[in-house]
Specification:
Layout: H1 10-66, E1 75-76, E2 105-111, E3 130-137, E4 146-152
Parallel strand pairs: 1-2
Antiparallel strand pairs: 2-3, 3-4
Length: 175
Amino acid sequence: MSSRNSERGSAMLITMILVAAILAGAAVLVSLQLGSNRSTEITRTGISALYCAEAGLAATRATIAANQSNWTGNIGVYDPDGTGTEPSWLSTVNHDLDGDGNPDFKVWLEDDSDEMPPNPDVPTVDSNSRLFVVSRCLKYPDLPREVRELVGVQQASNCYNSQRGGCAGNGNMNQ
């Protein structure tokens, strides 16, 4: 008579359970790493989109200040979809930051709610020489970023020797 081995494959069963547990742990780690990589990419793209919108403001600031007389005809109403109308006189500004031939930002003007009660607010008319310049980055359509800056233009004034502090801060000339 032959005797049978009493182990009957229990070592193989334990080995298979350990291998399955290790593979499951590896799958969880890979999933966590992929999620972390995606989160990092979204953050990086969001920061790049913010810088792009800020560059749009910087590129158009001087042109907007120089065209103050044209503000009233080009002020739009706040548009959350970013479809505000860009003034035609901003077409002289290069909107392609990276040289790929596509515009990277869009800029439009919004009123700053400058009318005082009891007068109604007219969002298409500027009455205090201040308005919001809004720049939206178009380069990253999945993560649109806007930057809004309050811009004001002051009238030039004359300096008089007898005014407090004198001209150019040279001391009070008034004895």
